[in-house]
TrEMBL record:
InterPro entries: DUF3180 (IPR021517). It holds the Pfam family DUF3180. It comes from the Bacteria. This is DUF3180 domain-containing protein. Signal peptide: none annotated. The keyword Cell membrane does not apply.
Length: 161
């Protein structure tokens, strides 16, 4: 399994930003107030990051320590996939919240601080989720096999020892 690429995170953030901007624009065109995320959203994003890290920790311990209990490989793959999905979700929510802030900041009327607080908290929580998920994904990766290290250190065309 390959690690989450920065390009995928950037694409998710840009798409999320476009959706956030478009939602606020359509709401304003229809005469409704702009969208403001619920207070629970940033809390849930941070909790998801914490849960992902907590689930990945036993896998890291199992890989790094010889005396730690072994983890089922299927469980480790599921946790790695959860981490990968969480990083993409975090990037999308971060982008969507940035799109909301971008739209509101381009309007002639300045928004109240209360309506912007949850949006800014969502930006921060999305960033926390992305970082936590990438760390959890790193926890679920296997170290290089010693045979592979020898092959990587050998000169091209030279046989490994």
């Amino acid at each position: 399994m390959t690690r989450t690429s920065p390009l995928a995170l950037i694409v998710a953030a840009v798409l999320g930003g476009g959706v956030g901007f478009l939602v606020d624009h359509l709401l304003t065109l229809s005469g409704r107030p702009t969208f403001s995320p619920a207070v629970g959203l940033p809390i849930l994003l941070v909790l998801l990051g914490a849960i992902t890290l907590a689930l990945a920790w036993p896998v890291r311990r199992s890989v790094r320590s010889a005396d730690a209990p072994r983890v089922d490989p299927f469980r480790a793959v599921r946790i790695a996939m959860l981490a990968k999905a969480s990083s993409l979700v975090g990037a999308a929510f971060l982008g969507a919240a940035l799109g909301l802030v971008l739209y509101v900041s381009t309007r002639p009327v300045t928004p109240g601080l209360g309506s912007m607080t949850t949006t800014i908290a969502t930006i921060a929580a999305g960033a926390v989720l992305v970082v936590a998920a990438l760390v959890a994904e790193h926890f679920c990766s296997l170290p290089k096999d010693p045979d592979e290290r020898d092959r990587d250190d050998a000169e091209p065309g030279e046989p490994a020892h």
